[in-house]
Design brief:
Blueprint: H1 21-32, H2 47-55, H3 59-69, H4 73-83, H5 90-102, H6 107-117, H7 128-145
Helix pairs in contact: 1-3, 2-5, 6-7
């Protein structure tokens, strides 16, 4: 069985309105059952850590909850709310979401991702969310479709 490339975009939010949280849930959930593609960390240093930090969640506690409970996405959001006393700080969520949508990859990263995707680097795609989407889709296609 092949391992799964997470294709939920960092630009996706669930009902709580937190960008990247659905992707983080998917990656951690896949890792918990040994199905996350080897090119991806369960909880990495980039957007993953930004989300946990903005929500004030401990990485170890988050990972343990996923590993032990294998929650649905809504169960995860409910757990997040429990950890935060029933509500999130909307200003922190807004700040996080702006940081995610506003992040720009370095030129060499952009060039590498676009080359792998077979798209010319004409300067029109600079944001990390869209570049990361292209990267995921390229890896998925090369591993699962094109063989």
């Amino acid at each position: 069985m092949s391992k799964i490339v997470p294709t939920i975009s960092s630009g996706t939010a669930g009902p709580l309105g937190v960008l990247h949280l659905p992707r983080l849930w998917m990656k951690a959930s896949l890792a918990a059952v040994g199905k996350l593609h080897d090119d991806y960390p369960a909880i990495g240093a980039g957007y993953d850590s930004m989300v946990l930090d903005a929500l004030g969640l401990d990485k170890g506690a988050f990972e343990a909850y996923i590993n032990e409970n294998k929650p649905s996405y809504i169960q995860l959001e409910n757990w997040v709310l429990e950890q935060k006393g029933g509500s999130l700080d909307q200003a922190k969520v807004d700040e996080l979401n702006a940081a995610i949508t506003g992040y720009i990859h370095a030129d060499d990263t952009r060039t590498e991702i676009l080359a792998a995707a077979g798209r010319p680097d004409d300067g029109t795609i600079k944001d990390a969310v869209n570049l990361n989407n292209l990267d995921d889709w390229s890896i998925f296609h090369s591993q699962e479709i094109a063989g």
